[in-house]
Amino acid sequence: MADGTTRPLSDDETADPRLLRDGRRIFRLDNLISQSPGTRYDVELNGKRFFPTGYWKTDQRQMPRLLKSERVEARANSLAYVRYLDDFPVFAMTNAWTDTAIAGRPGDKVYLQPRG
Q: The pTM is what?
């Protein structure tokens, strides 16, 4: 919401996100911790300190930028990344090639091996 509060989508909003008004955005919380080797350091958010159980996905130099952008939220005993639905617009794939099921002829397919 514009005031920073969050709430689940209603059933109607889930069915038709265009019902959202007043700058409201759909988001989900995503993991900020990785099992792959990376960096480990304390992060403070809203007066509470967090240390990863694995490794932060964001290095120590970039974490303040992420915090300042208000894209981090406390979740249980860890931090999560706020990922908005409109961060990466996508579209449905509609290019189905239904005519290639039998490659234009019945029977076994014949493959050519390149020369050289």
A: 0.67
